[in-house]
């Protein structure tokens, strides 16, 4: 009988211990995972040809990123651009306004940032064919990745993911790894009337100053132009790699 009571006691103690261990594991906070994001301009250096015969190289402006557990952090498809700096990003390639709006909302500085200096360069600027940006983010399961860059030869086009962002972890909590280029779309901010890509006087390198060009009073929508839409892989590559390459 004593041996039986001892066995039952040990069994209960084991169950109790395992229950405590399970609870401890379940409630333990996930440690952030460090991801390296690389944006490469892989377009043809000769560019495309405009109607006037000019060669138009593809370029991407400096941009910004946001980590969030909610939907689109800085624009809504089908709605006018918010007064949050999106116009500056889309028209002038300047992410500072978007970042300032996040700071004003007390968004954690650890969850957003700017990338603006090409690898190997001394100063901020766009990336042209053969050039790249690289930056890191720290995220925990449940977070989504949002990013925006201006299509450099346009009036107010920009690349960004859809409303749901890009999941950084799969259903099992494993960090994503690899090419995410096809999860970006080309958007029109609807803030400035479009001119022919690459030769408009109010575009990227040709405009006399920021915030020039005729107002469009439109809404944010996806660009429908067969020369550019759905052809991300011909112009740029975006990859994400968790620390250790897991």
Task: Write structural notes for this entry.
- The protein has helices at 2-27, 86-92, 96-104, 232-235, and strands at 33-41, 48-49, 55-56, 60-68, 112-115, 132-139, 144-151, 157-160, 166-167, 178-179, 185-188, 221-222, 236-242.
- It is of the alpha+beta class.
- Strands 4, 5, 7, 8, 9, 11 and 12 form a seven-stranded antiparallel sheet that branches. Strands 6-1-13-10 form a four-stranded antiparallel sheet.
- Strand 2 (48-49) and strand 3 form a beta hairpin.
- The N and C termini lie far apart (54 Å).
List the main descriptive attributes of the protein structure presented here:
7-stranded antiparallel β-sheet; 13 strands; 246 residues; disordered N terminus; 26% strand; alpha+beta; 4-stranded antiparallel β-sheet
SSE map:
Elements: H1 2-27, E1 33-41, E2 48-49, E3 55-56, E4 60-68, H2 86-92, H3 96-104, E5 112-115, E6 132-139, E7 144-151, E8 157-160, E9 166-167, E10 178-179, E11 185-188, E12 221-222, H4 232-235, E13 236-242
User: What string, H for helix and E for strand, traces the elements in order?
Assistant: HEEEEHHEEEEEEEEHE
* Structural Rg: 24 Å
What is the arithmetic mean of pLDDT?
Answer: 87
Category by helix and strand content:
alpha+beta
Low-confidence stretches: 1-28
Q: Assembly type of the shown chains?
A: single chain
Number of helical stretches of at least 4 residues: 4
Could you estimate the helical fraction of the residues in percent? 10-25%
Record field, number of beta strands: 13
Largest sheet: 7 strands, antiparallel
Measure the end-to-end span: 54 Å
Strand content: 25-35%
- What is the general shape? globular
């Amino acid at each position: 009988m004593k041996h039986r009571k001892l066995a039952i006691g040990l069994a209960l103690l084991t169950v109790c211990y395992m229950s405590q261990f399970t609870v401890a594991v379940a409630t333990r906070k996930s440690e952030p995972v460090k991801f390296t994001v690389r944006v490469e301009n892989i377009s043809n250096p000769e560019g495309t040809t405009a109607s006037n015969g000019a060669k138009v190289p593809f370029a991407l402006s400096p941009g910004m990123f946001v980590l969030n557990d909610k939907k689109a952090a800085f624009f809504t498809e089908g709605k006018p651009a918010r007064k949050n700096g999106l116009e500056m990003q889309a028209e002038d390639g300047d992410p500072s306004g978007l970042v300032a709006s996040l700071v004003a909302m007390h968004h954690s500085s650890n969850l957003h940032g700017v990338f603006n200096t090409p690898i190997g360069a001394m100063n901020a600027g766009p990336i042209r064919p053969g050039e790249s940006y690289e930056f890191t983010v720290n995220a925990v399961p449940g977070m989504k990745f949002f990013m925006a860059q201006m299509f450099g030869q346009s009036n107010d086009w920009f690349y960004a993911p859809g409303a749901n962002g890009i999941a950084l972890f799969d259903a099992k909590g494993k960090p994503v790894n690899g090419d995410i280029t096809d999860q970006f779309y080309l958007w029109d901010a609807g803030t400035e009337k479009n001119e022919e890509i690459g030769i408009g006087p109010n575009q990227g390198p040709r405009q006399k100053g920021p915030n020039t060009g005729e107002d469009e009073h439109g809404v944010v929508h996806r660009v429908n132009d067969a020369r550019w839409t759905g052809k991300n892989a011909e112009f740029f590559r975006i990859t994400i790699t968790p620390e250790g390459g897991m």
